[in-house]
Design brief:
- Pfam families: Aldedh.
- Belongs to the aldehyde dehydrogenase family.
- Residues 12-476 form the Aldehyde dehydrogenase domain.
- It catalyses: an aldehyde + NAD(+) + H2O = a carboxylate + NADH + 2 H(+).
- The structure is a single chain.
- By secondary structure, this protein is α/β, with parallel strands linked by helices.
- The chain has two domains: 6-251 and 452-476, Aldehyde Dehydrogenase, Chain A, domain 1, CATH 3.40.605; 255-438, Aldehyde Dehydrogenase, Chain A, domain 2.
- It is 40% helix and 19% strand.
- It contains 16 helices and 20 strands.
- The protein has helices at 40-56, 64-80, 82-93, 97-120, 155-169, 183-193, 209-217, 230-240, 265-276, 297-309, 329-345, 379-382, 398-406, 421-430, 463-468, 484-492, and strands at residues 6-8, 11-13, 20-24, 31-36, 125-129, 135-142, 145-149, 172-176, 202-204, 223-227, 246-250, 255-259, 287-293, 348-351, 369-372, 389-395, 414-417, 437-438, 457-458, 471-478.
- The strands form five sheets. Strands 14-15-16-13-12-17-18 form a seven-stranded mixed beta sheet, sandwiched between helices.
- Helix 2 packs antiparallel against helix 5, helix 3 (82-93) crosses helix 4 and helix 4 (97-120) packs parallel to helix 5.
């Protein structure tokens, strides 16, 4: 890769500023790379290249089939380098290699192809009969220059869900990866360079928060697509407001798993573990509030504790590892702080805790931790912890379970576990979230829209709606054709 350069408008360039980004391995706490950091001058250059490409270049004006072909070439290049991509992600964010191969790399690769399939059937241009007899043409046109800003936890998945639909819509994209995980984005830039896109269509600018803020506020940007914390999302929305700049926000979550009284404890424990503790719990749609019937609370708590205690914690490069380190020391300290808070608030610590896992002496690790006998007004039940910490909350009946699930500032995901499908779907309809799962965590189906409500943001990614977010809809009305004989009669009158 080319860590000393920035990928601006399809060309590798020397940065205009001296600062560098140190990439630290969470497992060893040792530096593994140093990459160039974008400054204001680099952002200006990327926006200028993007504006030229969008305002006068071929990309927005190509037939959609040609853009689809270009993205399929990118997908082919991606497929050939999946192993390298997974190894890089494991090294820079600590994701277990098995999870990196499956979710961090194979899933984004699959979504590239799925988006192309969606774009082939997408109504970029359609004709409707008007109410007054005139034909109405509906065009879905690219929104323009897109600033795509992604966090470190699922970097390739989050990049692909922004970059690919934007490109298919005809937009041009400036991507800013998180400073914790720039290496995977630079590898993707290499693949983009091999895919024969026109000049200016894609730029990749690693940088800190100030670079992201400068990009968001730039007058040459037409839309911002942001994934990150709710606090940061509010700042992005405020920065876009003065210019009425289009913005979509995929933010935090504190999702609830509602366990109904007919559910099987072992099935619930397995489903919650998969949906909550992957990537060391550093996923926005994790099920972190486990709502269980009070009469069976011990059964479900014990099953979940046994499942969590059996998790293999350690070296993320080992294929047997299920839980790796957190991304940074500050994240480790933050999660340990929440564990201490949970104990102080009176929740019962069932398994885990703030100490290092057994057999692990170095790295930013936190034991998978389970609290029970908690209340929904505790901080561990209300705030996004973003680590391997789950909280069991008892409820008296289904009505109270729904009320607890909805009593949250967030609304990203959730689930219900039950033997009765119709009952489960009824609960799903009553929970105010953007996504929901029945007898599983929410699956990231590329054909289904993903996004949240309330403090979890607005806008949708994936599915046809994922392309919609990068288009403007234009209506063109065409005067009805007048019959010549009728027109002549009118003139004679």
């Amino acid at each position: 890769m080319r860590p000393d350069e920035l990928f601006i408008g399809g060309v590798w360039c020397e940065p205009t500023t001296a600062p560098r980004i140190d990439v630290i391995a969470p497992h060893t706490e040792e530096p593994i790379a140093q990459v160039a950091a974008a400054g204001p001058g680099d952002v200006d250059a990327a926006v200028a290249a993007a504006r030229t490409a969008f305002d006068g270049g071929p990309w927005p004006r190509l037939d959609p089939a040609e853009r689809i072909g270009a993205v399929r070439r990118l997908a082919a290049a991606y497929g050939e380098r999946r192993s390298q991509m997974a190894e890089i992600i494991t090294s820079e964010i600590g994701a277990p290699i098995s999870f990196a191969q499956r979710a961090q790399v194979a899933l984004p690769w699959t979504m590239m192809t799925a988006f192309c399939d969606l774009a082939e059937a997408y109504p970029f241009h359609e004709e409707r009969p008007g109410r007054y007899g005139a034909a109405v043409h509906i065009r879905r046109e690219p929104v323009g220059v897109v600033a795509a800003i992604v966090p470190w936890n699922m970097p390739q998945f989050l990049i692909v869900t922004k970059l690919v639909p934007a490109l298919l819509a005809g937009c041009v994209v400036i991507l800013k990866p998180a400073p914790e995980s720039p290496l995977n984005a630079l590898l993707l830039a290499e693949m983009i360079a091999e895919s024969d896109l026109p000049p200016g269509v894609v730029s990749v600018l690693p940088g800190d928060g100030s670079a992201g803020e400068y990009l968001v506020k730039h007058a040459g940007v037409d839309k911002v697509s942001f994934t990150g914390s709710t606090t940061a999302g509010k700042a992005v929305a405020a920065a876009c407001a003065p210019d009425l700049k289009r913005v979509s926000l995929e933010l935090g979550g504190k999702s609830a798993a509602i366990v109904l009284d007919d559910a099987d404890p072992a099935t619930v424990a397995s489903g919650v573990r998969s949906a909550s503790l992957s990537n060391s719990g550093q996923i926005c749609n994790a099920l972190t509030r486990i709502l269980v019937p009070a009469a069976r609370a011990d059964e479900f708590t014990d099953a979940l504790a046994a499942e969590m205690a059996a998790l293999v914690v350690g070296d993320p490069t080992d294929s047997a590892t299920q839980v790796g380190p957190l991304v940074a020391q500050r994240q480790q300290q933050r999660v340990r702080g929440y564990i201490a808070t949970g104990c102080a608030e009176g929740a019962r610590l069932v398994t885990g805790g703030a100490q290092m896992p057994d057999g692990v002496e170095k790295g930013w690790y936190v034991r998978p931790t389970l609290f029970a006998d908690a209340k929904n007004d505790m901080r561990i039940a209300r705030e996004e912890i973003f680590g391997p910490v789950l909280t069991v909350i008892p409820f008296a009946d289904e009505q109270e379970a729904v009320a607890i699930a909805n009593d949250s500032d967030y609304g990203l995901a959730g689930s219900v576990f039950t033997e009765d499908l119709e009952r489960g779907l009824g609960v799903a309809a009553r929970i105010r979230t953007g996504t929901f799962g029945v007898n599983q965590g929410y699956t990231m189906d590329p054909f289904a829209p993903f996004g949240g409500v309330k403090g979890s943001g607005y806008g949708r990614e994936l599915g046809r709606e994922g392309i919609d977010g990068y288009t403007d809809t234009k209506s063109i009305s065409v005067a009805a054709k007048q019959d010549p004989a009728t027109a002549a009669q009118g003139k004679g009158a």
